[in-house]
Records
---
Amino acid sequence: MKQIIFTAILGFCGLTATISDAGNFKITDPNQGHQIFTDALNAKDLDILVDIYADDAVMVAPGNNVIRGKENIRAFFVETLKAVESITLDTVFRVNYQDTVVFRSNYTVVYKTEDGQTVTQAASGIEVERLQPDGTWLFIVDHHYGGTDLAKFMQMNQPQ
């Protein structure tokens, strides 16, 4: 039911995505990947978050933690969804080359720390989508801070 409502919202916004017979969420237009990711994270929809990554995807998460494979990405999002309250994300640019699209994003995430403090953090990521044999697109690389000037990032995100 949650995915049906999510798909209806996407349709209302003019976004293109489908749910396969198995219930897996598919990106059918690579330009919608960021919006689908943002909507899924804000809706705390673990299944959609995981469905938009390739089985062999690589993610670089906070602490320069390299996460490989869809099941490990799922485990990362299980924990992430416990803390994240919201995210806003803007696509800065995208470069299409044959079956690959590279994106740079600016995003702001609001989350709760283990002690209950609310933290707002801004950064810039780099993401890569690859065209799949079925005509859909999946994220193959997601580097949370890949587009961030780390010196500025550390200054901007110091506790107050």
Note: Helices lie at 2-12, 33-42, 46-51, 70-83, 150-156.
---
Amino acid sequence: MISEMEAAFCKGVFSKETTFRFQLEDTVIVITVDGDGYQVERGGAAVADCNCATSAEIFRKIWYEGYRPGIMDFLSGAIVCDNPLLLPPFLRAFGR
């Protein structure tokens, strides 16, 4: 996924720097996005605007299969996110 981000990035989706921290089981990826680009960091305890934890399988389905989580994904705990309204623009920023 990370290797595909460069070609898919869409400038201008975010007007200010926004940091996402994804915990996919025991892997942490921090992605900082702004209007012109993005930066990826593996691991780290960055302060994030959006912290999201889910399984690698669900993240893969969202990224590659176009799956869009519903309210039950969040209520059941399959996806835990402190700012879910930032997730759709994140996906748009990478052409998803």
Note: The mean pLDDT is 92.
---
Amino acid sequence: MSAENEIVQAASSNIEGIRLMAMAFTIAIGGMFPALGISKVGAKAMESIGRNPEAASKVQTAMLIGAAFIEAIAIYALVVALIIKFV
């Protein structure tokens, strides 16, 4: 009986370790790519405002809406990571 308990406990800790790694990977990827996307959107917006300053308000509005959608992806990654941790 003791050996079976040790095996069950080892398997349980192994599964917990896999869950933590999956959570960390989800947060890493889910934070990295939206950050790259937002930086690219910001850079292109600044470039287009530099080329055409009269269109700054239109470009800024579109940039903020795009950044909000990109940021939503990072929030989805956080939700998935929390689901992995607690379920």
Note: The chain has two helices and no strands.
---
Amino acid sequence: MVGSASLDPRARRGTRVRSSQQTRFRGPAWEKVVTRIDGSGGPDTLSPMPQGKETPFESSATRIPGGPGWSMDHLTLLPVIDDLTEFRRVHADDPALSVLEELWSGRPERAEPAALALVRSARTARHRALLADVRRDLGRVSQAVEEYRDLLREHEGTGREAALWQHLGKAYFVGGAYGEAADAFETALRLRLDSRADPDLVTSSRQALDRARSLTARGSEGTAS
């Protein structure tokens, strides 16, 4: 699971609404979501997502189905814990539980120490991706993008590639680079279709792609006017 806003996603979580309808993904959460993290010194080179009035479509948006105890916000494309008790029950044996709980509850600054400890203990693709997600949520989007690019080079042609493209797209999305986000989501979607991935994963990529394209188009309209 890395699963999974402006550069401070916590400010945007207030726009999220709950949906009474929710289906559950099968398999580990990291394969279903994309998350964020940190770097050192200086502002990030990517821009924050613009904050402003919501369109009627946005204000009525619902959560994207996720898994037991969590879903994804349609506006931010980030994971949100809906039922903490259920989430903890399902992930009781996951060494990354504390990172996921803090990160998906909008507290990346508290998730960072645990994420760093995970990477130091075992430098796996999942742990590195989780750390990238944390840094993304801390506003260090360029650092997260760089880590995902490294992971993609290392896992090209493997079963992890589609999920990594999806996570890269979310890092771009959080940074306001909607065109780059759409390209990454489109690649993830193609890979998932080609591999006949779980329909829920395909739907997740389609929804993310549609969201990024809608914001890209909106930006183009604003420039043209």
Note: The chain has one domain: 9-224.
